[in-house]
Design brief:
single chain, N-(1-d-carboxylethyl)-l-norvaline Dehydrogenase, domain 2, alpha/beta, globular, 3-stranded mixed sheet
């Protein structure tokens, strides 16, 4: 299948590489052209504009945020250039407000919009083991399924309303951020009683919280291994902001999201914005005078 891929950050580059290796013809575009070079070496075609990347059978966008998505899809004229019947997999974490707008604009253009955000870090993406949340027109999802099967270990269907997948992704990331904050506060507490963070997280990860989020992030927190970042703290702030905005739209209070936002802002003010978002755990150490 001829596939366009826009956004070649850590996640996007790994996903596009897997599609090339699976035998698809992939047209890649990135704001910084150098990011496309390793993929071209694998067999991709580098587009010079987003419009070129939309001249395909199926296009995937994996862009950082609402602002970049609006610029690449709308301001560039890419969506306006798309042929009717094109399937667009939007795999980034976007706001419910922007997705609502995109659904309508795609409908007007005759393009099928499928929300397909993912759970998994860059290493999971490289292994083709993402969990993919999918919602959109049934026929469009069926057309995209062979592509989704390359990218992920499981596709989680959530119906025909793209906002359902978006809401699950936003809520899931809110839960991850909450877990990181809880681990940070808990390790700060036990450390004052002479319990090493690594010892504490080993116990928790093998008893009450035997789950990937706690095991993986617990190890990063215990070892203070925040660089290089698999997911930057500034993006965590963006995602918590998406949760707060979604909650406000539906009149759902999210008081702990406000705590997370403030602690993430404090971490960024301290210079930790480009570290892995597990560095949020450092805020509790600083507040308790241990750092």
């Amino acid at each position: 299948m001829k596939i366009g891929f826009l956004g070649l950050g850590g996640m996007g580059a790994a996903m596009a590489a897997n599609l090339i290796k699976a035998g698809h013809q992939v047209v890649v575009w990135n704001r910084s052209p150098a990011a496309a070079e390793p993929l071209v070496a694998l067999g991709a075609v580098a587009a010079t504009t987003p419009v070129q990347a939309f001249d395909v059978e199926l296009v995937i966008s994996m862009l950082a945020d609402d602002t970049s998505t609006r610029a690449v899809l709308l301001d560039s004229g890419a969506l306006a250039s798309a042929k009717a019947g094109l399937v667009h997999l939007s795999m980034a974490t976007l706001s419910t407000a922007l997705v609502t707008e995109l659904v309508e604009l795609h409908r007007e253009q005759g393009v099928e919009f499928v929300a397909a955000p993912v759970f998994g870090r860059t290493d999971v993406a490289a292994a083709g083991k993402l969990n993919i949340l999918v919602a959109g027109p049934e026929a469009a999802i069926a057309k995209a399924q062979p592509v989704l099967d390359v990218l992920g270990q499981k596709t989680w269907p959530l119906g025909d309303d793209p906002l359902r997948a978006v809401a699950v992704k936003i809520a899931g990331n809110f839960m991850i951020a909450s877990a990181i904050e809880a681990m940070g506060e808990s390790t700060a507490l036990v450390k004052t009683y002479g319990v090493a963070p690594g010892e504490f997280m080993e116990i928790m990860g093998n008893t009450l919280f035997n789950a990937p989020v706690y095991r993986n992030y617990g190890a990063l927190i215990a070892e203070q291994r925040f660089d290089p970042a698999a997911f930057r703290l500034v993006l965590g702030l963006k995602d918590v902001g998406l949760a707060l905005s979604a909650g406000q739209e539906q009149r759902v209070p999210l008081p702990f999201a406000s705590v997370l936002r403030d602690n993430l802002l404090e971490a960024i003010a301290h210079g930790d914005g480009d570290l892995d978002w597990s560095a949020l755990s450092q805020v509790a150490l600083r507040k308790s005078g241990q750092l």
